[in-house]
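Researcher:
Attend to C-alpha cell order:
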Amino acid sequence: MTAQGVVAEPSENPADLDRGNPEGEIAARADAYRNWGRWGSDDVLGTLNFIDERKRADAARLVSAGRVISLSQNFDTDGPQKGWRRRINPVHTMTDTGTDAERGTQGFPHGIGGADDYVTMPLQCSTQWDGLGHIFDHGNAWNGRRAGDVVTSDGDLVTGIEHARDVIVSRGVLLDLGRHLAPETGELPDGYAITASELDACIAAQGASSAVGRGDIVLVRTGRYTRALREGWGEYAGGAAPGLSLTTAGWLHRTQIAAIATDTWGFEVRPNEFDAPAFQPLHQIVIPNMGLTIGEMWNLDELAAACVELGRWEFLLSAPPLPITGAVGSPINPVALL
C-alpha cells in the first residue's frame, strides 16, 4: 500500500521478484492487469479489440516498397517438436500421386490425373497463435468464465480461434532485442529475461518507427530461432530460451497492444524466474486475465534484415488464424508487407 492507501503496481525490476513465491507474484500481476469485463461480459477477443478499422487503414498506408515477407517456419517432419504433451511435427501424407497418374490407376477418363494429400499435426507444432482458451488461471478462463464451461471435449465452445478469423490484421512492429542487446551476435543467451526497460530502450534505439501503441502487434526477435537453424533444433521446443520477464506484464498491459509474438517456443524466458516449481507464469497472467493473444515460433530473421535495410521497423502485418471451429490455437503463415 502507498501512503495514500492505493495499491502499488507490481515491480518491473526482476531483482524484486520473490523467487520462492510464484503464486504470489502471479496473483499480484493477474489482479493488477486483469481486463475482465473491459469489452463486456460476452467478449471473445480480448486485446484484439484494440484493432479497429482506422488502425488497419493506417497500417495499410505503411506499404510502400510492395515487399512481402513470410514470418513462418516450415511445417514438415524436420521440425522442433519432440513429443511433449503429445506434440509431434506435421505428418504429410499423399493419397494420390503422379506415379498413380502415370500408371493410369486413378480411374479418371481421357488421361487426366491428379495429386491429393493431407496433413496430421497438432495446431501448435510450428508458427502459431495461442488462443484465449489455451491457458487457465486457477480454473478460470478469459473474462472470468469457468474453464470447464469454455473448453470441453468438443473444443473451445466460447472463445474458439475462429472468432479471430478476420481480426488479426494491423500495424506490426519489430523489436529486435537480439540485435539491440547483443549487437555482436544478434542472439540473446538462453535464460535471458527481457525487461520492460529493455523493451523501451530498444524502441528508443530503433527510432520513431518502432514506437508501440494501441492496437499494434509486437514482434520480439531474440535470435533463438537463428541459433536453432545454425545448430539444429536441440532443446528449442520446451528447453531453455531467452524471453520476456514476468515483470513485463505491466508493459504489455499499459501499451494496449493487440497481440505479441516471438521467435521462441514459449514467448517468456525459460527457465522461468523462480526457485520454486513454476511453469509459464507469464502465460497464466496475460492469456486468461489480460486477454492477450500470443504468437510463438515465428521466423523473424528476414524481416529483421529488411527493417535494417529500409531503416524502419513498422509494417502492415496480416496473421489471421485458420478458422478451425473450437480450436485453442492455430497454425499460421503471417506475412509482413513493407
